[in-house]
Every structure is written in structure tokens, then in C-alpha cells.
Amino acid sequence: MGGGMHEWDDDFLPAFWRAKRSMTREAGRVLEEHGVHEGQQFLLMCLWNEDGLTPGEVARRIDVSTPTVTRTATRLAAVGLVERRSDEVDSRLVRLCLTERGRSLREPLGAAMRAMSRRALGGMTEEESAQLIRLLARVNANMESSVSE
After folding, report:
1. Using alpha carbons only, how large is the chain's radius of gyration in Å?
2. What count of other Cβ atoms lies within 10 Å of the Cβ of residue 82?
3. Which residue, 10, 121, 124, 140, is most buried by CB atoms nearer than 10 A?
């Protein structure tokens, strides 16, 4: 696929940006209710799955830079959700560990984010929802590829 113009070429970006803006606004509202800022949920989710990772390990898993993880971890430590610990074997390594408060957010924040997803996908069949997710992954892959038309 590719090549010439399509009648929907002018419709895609405005529709995408409106949806992104709405999702970002709602995610911000939901996260703020739990004392978390937009973007921080990804570091928390990573640690909920595997606590005690290094900033580099987190960065690779959530596809951001290590300095971004370090800044986010500093902010989360300041509000008591994450703490830094020296690695028991290699003291040069820092491990990011959830505090009790950080662990306690897993269920309520997870439930709130799932509810937001259900709201966003409301009125769609399971097949349509799965297709949308696949299509968004394709949009991402297209934009991530180094080849541009």
C-alpha cells in the first residue's frame, strides 16, 4: 500500500489528534486522582510486573531513554511511590523498587485505566476493538520505520 492520494488523507490526522487529545486529557484526569502524572504510569506498570529493575532495564521495556526513566523515577521517589536501592551484588547498579504505596496503586489505577479503555472502545465489537489495536500498531510501525515515502 502507498502511492497516490486518497480522499481520507486529509481526514486521518485531525481524527487521530482529536482522539489522542481526548485520551490524554482523560488519562491525565484519572491519573491525577491517584497522584500520578501522565507518563509515570508506564514506569509503575513495568515495576508492577517486575519490581527491582534498573533504569536501563525499565527504559528498554517501555521504549524510552534511560535519562527519561531516571527523571520519572526521581519524581515518583519524591512522592513516595518508588525508591532507589543499590544492587546487592554490584553496588554501582541502582534498582528501582516500589514502595508499599506504589504497590497499593496497582489495583485502583489499573481498574481506572481499564475503565478508560472500555469507555474509549464503547460501542465497538470485540473484533472492531482488536482491529483498531492492530491498526494503531501498524500506524506506529509505519511511523517508526526509517523508510519514508
Report:
1. 19
2. 23
3. 121
82: which strand partners?
98
Give the model confidence (pLDDT) of 16-73 as tens digits: 999 999 999 999 999 999 989 989 999 999 999 999 999 999 999 999 999 999 999 9
Quote the cell numbers at residue 119. Answer: 469507555
Whether residue 82 contacts residue 97, with contact meaning beta carbons closer than 8 Å, is answered with: yes
Q: Please state the pTM of the whole predicted model.
A: 0.78
Q: Tell me the CA distances in angstroms from 20 to 69, 71, 108, 136, one per residue in order.
A: 23, 24, 23, 12
- Residue partners of 101: CB distance under 8 A and separation at least 6: 80, 81
- H-helix or E-strand containing 112? helix 106-120
